[in-house]
Amino acid sequence: MNNLIQDLRYGLRGLLRRPSFTLVAVISLALGIGANTAIFSLVNAVLLKPLQFTEPDRLVMVWENNSAIAAPRDDVAVANFMDWKTQNTVFDEMAAIGFRSFNITGDGEPEKVMAYGATSNFFPLLGAQPALGRNFLTDEDRDGGAKVLILSYGLWQRRYAGDREILGRDILLNGQKHTVVGVMPESFRFLYAFTALWVPAAFSGADLTKRDGQNLNVLGRLKPGVTLAQAQSDLGEITKRITRAYPNDVSPTLEPAVIPLSEQVAGKSRGPLIMLLVAVAFVLLIACANTANLLLSRATSRRREIAVRSAVGASRGRIVRQLLTESVILSGLGGGLGLLVAGFSFEFLKKLIPPGLIADTLKIDLRVMGFALLISLLTGIVFGLIPALQASRLDLNEALKQGGGRSGLGLGSGRLRGALVVAEVALALVLLVGAGLLVQTLSHLRGQYSMLQPEQLLTLRTVLQGDKYREPAKRWAFYDQVMERVKTLPGVRAVGYTTSVPLQWKGGANGFILEGPQPPPGLQTNAIHRQVSTDYLKTVGIALREGRYFDSRDNEHSLPAVIINETMARRYWPGGNAVGKRIQFEEPKWITIVGVAADVRQMGADQPVKSEMYLPYRQMTSFAAYKPRDLVIRAAGDPLQLVPAITREVHAIDPDQPVSNAATMDQQVVGETASRAVGMKLLIAFAALAALMAALGIYGVLGYFVAQHTPEIGVRLALGARPRNVLALVLKKGMVLALAGIAMGSLLAFSLTRLMSSLLFGVKPADIPTFIIVSLGLFGVAFLACYIPARRATRVDPLVALRYE
């Protein structure tokens, strides 16, 4: 212990005597360790930290696997859920929630909120208790039961100012009184952060027999010791019995999909987070290589000191321990500063947290501090061991000679510094290639909507609820009046209504029957269902490929018409023109295809295009679940400037009608790709930092090379060498290292980018232009890093260089 304290004191004094060296090393390590700690805290919150429910490892989500219609995780039909719940032998309990939408009126500004109908056992299954009040009662969760609700903490604070007397108060939801029986705690999240309140599911008699309408998210708690495979098998047998008993209502290929709740909550975050974790590991390795190079250079100036210590009896192990102690001190300082760096990054990193997790889970807890401590210790050993071993292996006679310092630490040290620089350049190139691929991915994701000119499109939501608009004619009157009024506003070029604008509702499919030849076995007739106004497609800018757009002829008195997308036309009429063909939802009504519209990704910017059909809302007296709700306006100027005027026009028609979700289509696209953009920016930052560190590494090695070979350069100049010869000599030394790093990095990137193929869109992992552009860019940075010390070498004065010490 005394020796350790002595080493610490000596190491600190030595580092304080070289403040510039210490500052550069600590900052370099702080950036590497801080980045790793920040990303680890994100991985800890999303992938490692247990969910804040009772025994979360036993919680699973259960979906309907309808892979035949490209829906591997589809919502569950009520009747199928009830069969799973009553017949299974693997769950302690199963619960369900179904999406609801309510308009709150009567106690202030009308407001539309997103909600869920939950079975009475939903909160107890999770082990969640309200912060105020109670959970739902069994009697409330049945058709005709008392109308009650539980508020989310956010809605309670925002609309009701955290009033603790809220329990027992009646709130109007879609014009019907619901009594508040509870308020959930601030920390409660389940899958969807936007949930404002919950009501009892209260399935009706018709719901309990419904097998072709999927609208439930099903949650289960496994019995102790039951595995996922056993649960999958048990529900699979029940599903087979369902498909045999109800062949007309249930697809014969239907299967259950049992997913751990932790995996469901993490969603698609696992791949990007692992990619970022690898990226910051590369940054830390580059920081270690840079610091190792600094230590190797510093060891030259300490050569005599180490030789004297050896000469008076210090063993090689004692010297290595002293040098390692100094390295650990550096990494410890870097780790402490890195924790501050990580803490400042949390606000930005929160954008990568899936919405089902608690928003404030990013913090420096004991696990994160333990990680920072461990990585600091390992970093100190990694970058300090090889320089310590090199520095402790020397020739005492040579080291103690006057002027012996010129030779440095020998040929082996020079090769080691060169190898470290090659590794830095290689790792930097891998990160730059990955960043380049993600930049192209984001560009392709957002660019596919450019033909819609999304920056000129404004979308607002007017969800019609309650008895007031139960009759189709009253809904049609509302839509018509809104569009007529909005059309007259200055700056409005076109107006339309739709069930949902692209990217805003990733559901709403309908089965149908084809007239004439039927599709081959296994190809289900199913398409996305959107009810639209006459001018919707023109307003949004969806191009027509065949046939015609809707017009005034397509009303409640004319023959039913439908416009389908290109994917649907190719899938069901691959050999000919789809225009003029007919489909059927319900007998005896046949619907004629009058047009084929261009494909637009509705279900997600990176999701495959599905079969889609657009129907005039005036011809749809049934299918109320798909009634229009989104108003779309193409503006001549800034679309957002129109929001107050449009809201006034809507309230002039119906003062109790909420207007919500005001945003441009461009904002919708940006929001859809926001998490990818955050990941891309992080990777770009890490790649830029890596390139900068690699450039500093090259600069440091060449600067050291010039300093150590100043006498040789002086001799060359004295014998007639021209400055350009010296410039070429030094540039060649640095560029050979850079080119070797670029070559090695290209091979490494070619292998590793294949692992990120699932994160790419519209670009191949081995995209040659990306590799070429990145290599040329890194070559340019390396050339600049080489040129500065090379230029300095040409200015060496031969007389000064040759003067004996």
Low-pLDDT parts are 402-409
Gyration radius from CA atoms, angstroms: 34 Å
The total of beta strands comes to 24
Quickly give the structural class: alpha+beta
Mean pLDDT: 87
Question: Can you give the helix content as a percent range?
Answer: 40-55%
Number of helices: 23
Shape assignment: elongated
N-to-C span = 41 Å
How does the major sheet shape up? 8 strands, mixed
How much of the polypeptide forms β-strand, as a percent range? 15-25%
List keywords for this structure.
805 residues, elongated, 17% strand, six-stranded mixed β-barrel, 23 helices, alpha+beta
Can you describe this structure?
The structure is a single chain. This protein has 805 residues and is α+β, with helices and mostly antiparallel strands. Helix content is 48%, strand content 17%. It has 23 helices and 24 strands. The longest helix has 37 residues, at 411-447. The protein is elongated.
